[in-house]
Amino acid sequence: MRLTKFLDRFQPRTSSLTLKIGLIGMLVGSATLPIADACTTAVISGRCTESGRPILWKNRDTSSSSHNEVVHFDDGPISFVAVVNASKRSSVWMGVNEAGFCIENSLSKDLRDDNPASGMGNGSFMKHALSTCRTVEDFSKLLQATDITGRKTLANFGVLDAEGGAAIVESGPKSHQVFDANDPLVAPEGFLVRANFSTTANDLPADPPADLSPGMYSSNRYCRAKGLLHQQLPLGITVPFMTKNLCRDLADSNGIAFPGSINGPTGSLPAELETDQTISRATTVSAVVIEGVAEGEDPRTTTMWTMLGDPKFTIAIPCWASVSDIADAATEPTGAEIGEVALLLREWCIDGRDKLIDTAALPGIWEDILPLEERLYAETNAALEPYRNADLDISALTQVHHQTAGQAMEALQGELDELKSDVLNTLVSTSVPSAYIKTPIQSGVLRVAICDHTDKPTKGAANLLRILTKNEGFVTERIKPKQVVDGALDSFDIVVMPGGSGSAQARRLGEDGCQTIRDFVADGGGYVGICAGAYLASSQYSWSLNLINARVFDRTHWARGQGEVELKMTAAGIRKFDTDELVSVYYGQGPLLVPDDHEDLPAYEVLASFATEVALKGAPEGAMKNTHAIIRSNYGDGRVICFSPHPETKSGPNDIIADGVRWVGGQQLSH
User: Per-residue pLDDT for 512 more than 80?
Assistant: First the structure.
């Protein structure tokens, strides 16, 4: 990935480009359409492709699920393979069946009817079409039949078949219009592009000009995609061109590619990018480029090149309707592994505070994955060639699918490992700030408040009361968030925020309670955050207390499961806790802590990292290892220590918690 450039994101922020993601455009007729449903698609007839085979393309943007997977369906008349929201099998969003019929869609709310119909929506209708239709003509007949009964469709459907059919179908609840991409009068250049408006609802020609009014929602993406395809016509449109240049395009609102981007001039990408007008967006969760077949070729060789995750951060792999054994990396009810790693990479590049894409990592990622993607396409195409006009070897095709998915997964895992390694190794503090030294409590007894936000005492609070006893030098009391607001912390030296939910803790404390805790620590108090309390102390979330200069690695997969893990203590951790280098402890979905870049907070010190991991519920393997489990720092005149795991459970080691509380209280200063 060459992440040395990536680390520039931790330098003071510039204002060279500060436009924010999240603008919502207006449809003609004043109906609004959420940015998250902003798919861009095209159907390309064989007369303008290099191979003579038609191509179908979709960049999928959605708010319904960022977790996608590939699923093989064989419970209907025709078997098919499709991209779905992870674990949601009732709807599909792009796919191909064994007859060579392919379909995808873009949402077009301007096709709505004043009298809403019942029936199938866009995703369920596409699933039904894949299981029953063999040709574009079959799909047209299905629409004719359901025009009478009604549907819930509001879509521009792109469809291909093995007989050369290639069309865009604009479909409302009780009407539809077919636009044949093979007809020179309908599609003069041999392709049709759609975004999130329909031509039928806006009195536009079937192939609107590339200078379409920017006042129409999604017109920028429409014009940009059409312009890119037009430029490629002299050379012939290919799958690699689509996956590289269309799926990953980054251009400004005038359709001009940013310097340093895939289609841009030589130069450096702007440090931060908005993507409200680009084809490849911060909300793009997957993409497909489906290559159909030429006349006489086996329909089962129709190939769905699938990009799980944001195309900017992932690799296209081939899928076929005849391959029922989907590679593990491409299918998983919690989200396919390839897509989940891509999500993690994207998460790190999207600033949660400003909603901008930090671009420093992109050139290095592209340098690594684009050559591999091109090689995988060439090798797959060569392996497929003998079977296009001869008996298809399903086992050979299955092997190709698994091998390419494996190589893609390995490459993305390498990107993840490099990203994590560079962040951890480059940005960790190597010394304890002098401000750690504060006056110890004169009485020698530490007064500890456990702020439990739950209605009933939790196990975490009960365990802390069991550990922090008078015999151990503590006077401990469980208090509620309202008591914090009312000034209860004036009677304590330390506040402990236990497990639970960091956002719920912040919500129950409210703005006044959160500020009270900040002031308490800044004035010399101690703060101990355990699991949820560590999330709360971080500097990442909108509800964070910002007590410690730490963000969360892989926040997308925070619910990664529970279990015993081993911690590797640093030299400082071994001295502080008087323990072995490896310590076993219970983990319950605490934060994977890594350094943040707040200039007004000091760097923290690492006391322990995760030597082993929990990677359940779709969490990528390798993400957790070596991230930070126990960290400490100062905040103003006070001290902060954060525990991601739960040393306070009965399995312990409980001494770690007790020593951590003593440290924030100013005791054991020799450590």
Answer: yes
Instruction: Please give the Cα distance from 118 to 114 (Å, whole number).
Output: 13
The CA distance from 411 to 114, in Å, is 50
User: What DSSP line would sit under 306-366, residue for residue?
Assistant: EEES-GGG---EEE-TT--S--GGG--TT--HHHHHHHHHHHHHB-TTT--EE-TTHHHHH
SS3 419: helix
Above 70 in pLDDT, residue 32? no
Q: Quick one: what percent of the chain has pLDDT higher than 90? A: 75
Does the pLDDT value for residue 5 go beyond 80? no
CA-CA distance, 40 to 61, in Å (whole number)? 8
Task: Residue 309: name the closest of 294, 325, 293, 288 by CA.
Answer: 288
Asked if 423 contacts 331 with a C-beta cutoff of 8 angstroms, the reply is no
From the DSSP assignment, how many helices (H) and strands (E) are in the chain?
13, 26
Model confidence pLDDT, tens digit, residues 260-296: 999 999 999 999 888 878 899 888 999 999 999 999 9
Q: Are 521 and 635 in contact (CB under 8 A)?
A: yes
> Strand, coil or helix: what is 68?
strand
Q: What is the Rg, in whole angstroms, of the alpha carbon atoms belonging to the chain?
A: 28
Q: Collapse the DSSP code of 1 into the 3-class scheme (helix H, G, I; strand E, B; otherwise coil) and give the result.
A: coil
- Give the closest residue to 397 by CA, choosing from 384, 406, 385: 384
Q: Which of 2-16, 31-45, 542-556, 656-670 has maximum average pLDDT?
A: 542-556
Q: What percent of the chain has pLDDT over 70?
A: 90
H or E stretch covering 464: helix 459-467
CB proximity list for 412: less than 8 A, separation 6 or greater:
313, 314, 315, 338, 341, 342, 345, 369
pLDDT in tens, 560-569: 999 999 999 9
Task: Reply yes or no: is the peptide bond before residue 653 cis, omega within 30 of 0.
Answer: yes
**Helices 122-132 and 136-149 meet at what angle, rounded to 10?**
130
* Strands laid side by side in the 68-73 sheet: 68-73, 80-85, 94-97, 102-107, 155-160, 166-171, 176-180
Q: What is the DSSP letter of 49?
A: B
Beta strand segments in 165-311, E: 166-171, 176-180, 191-194, 272-273, 284-291, 303-308
- Smallest CA-to-CA distance from 396 within 328, 320, 329, 330 is with 320
Res. 442 pLDDT band, cuts 50 70 90: low
Q: What is the pLDDT of residue 351?
A: 64
| Two tokens, residue 29 | 């007729």
